[in-house]
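step=encode ok
step=design start
structure_in=
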């Protein structure tokens, strides 16, 4: 029997041996668009919407009650009017797409580099001992300081922003993958070795799958950090993107325009995070979720 078929059989038997007395909290969930909609999800969504409504109401009315001028803190409706104006001029959508592209490229490249370096260091303690001081020094160095240097080297192009995002995304993913590779269950490794598995098969069937939860934890962090990295690059040396719009609005004293740019950056970060969570649920659906039941 091959290593692959044996591993599949073991996984299948493990999945089928769930405790007979286990109770499920979310019985008979309603499916909406392929997702299971439970009572807990409904309550959570309702609470989130209520918090959002309270926040927007406070944003709309508190500045007037506190006597704050519009150029300090504009009302929510003023910000929305400015967003409509920026949308109608055609500039906002172009800059939004430019920043989103930089975030996607910086995140993907940083994730791939972090995954590769984390695997290499995790599988080779000697390599980790040699390279870890330099990687740590690179992480300690403030990324904002690299942005002007990248602009001097590469000009006012897309590349400095991607590089800053790459540097920020790289470290958390690398550390998570490295720790996961180092903490793989040795019994699982020995089990596969008894089946005469090659080094590649051990990595593919045991080590890499075991590292996936930690990898996705790093990807969640990296998805938000990528937006920060791109924004820093655009603030320092950008002629396009939401960071550039933010600086331009600030120079004109357009506080509402600054808020529109900030909201746009936040939306990009939320979308990036949601995409990572979506992929995580698809890839790690086999991992049981801990539930708390009440009598």
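sequence_out=
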């Amino acid at each position: 029997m091959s290593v692959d078929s044996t591993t599949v059989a073991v996984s299948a038997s493990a999945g089928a041996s769930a405790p007979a007395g286990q109770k499920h909290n979310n019985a008979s969930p309603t499916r909406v668009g392929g997702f299971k909609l439970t009572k807990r999800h409904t309550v959570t969504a309702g609470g989130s919407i209520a918090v959002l409504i309270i926040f927007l109401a406070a944003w709309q009315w508190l500045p007037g009650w506190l006597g704050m001028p519009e150029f300090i803190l504009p009302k929510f409706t003023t910000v929305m009017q400015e967003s409509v104006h920026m949308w109608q001029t055609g500039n906002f959508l172009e800059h939004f797409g430019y920043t989103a592209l930089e975030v996607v490229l910086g995140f993907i490249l940083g994730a791939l580099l972090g995954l590769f370096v984390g695997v290499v260091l995790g599988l080779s303690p000697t390599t980790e001992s040699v390279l870890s001081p330099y990687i740590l020094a690179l992480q300690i160095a403030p990324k904002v300081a690299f942005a002007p240097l990248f602009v001097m080297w590469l000009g006012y192009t897309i590349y400095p922003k991607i590089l800053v995002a790459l540097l920020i995304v790289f470290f958390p993913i690398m550390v998570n993958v490295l720790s996961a590779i180092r903490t793989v269950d040795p019994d699982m490794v020995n089990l596969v070795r008894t089946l005469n598995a090659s080094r590649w098969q051990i990595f593919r069937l045991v080590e890499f799958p075991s590292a996936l939860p930690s990898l996705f934890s790093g990807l969640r962090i990296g998805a938000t950090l990528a937006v920060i990295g791109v924004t820093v690059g655009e603030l320092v040396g950008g002629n396009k993107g939401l960071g550039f719009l933010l600086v331009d609005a600030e120079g004109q004293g357009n506080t509402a325009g600054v808020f529109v740019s900030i909201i746009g950056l936040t939306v990009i970060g939320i979308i990036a995070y949601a995409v990572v969570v979506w992929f995580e649920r698809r890839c790690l659906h086999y991992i049981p979720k801990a539930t708390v039941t009440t009598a």
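step=design ok
step=annotate ok -> The beta strands are 30-32, 35-37.
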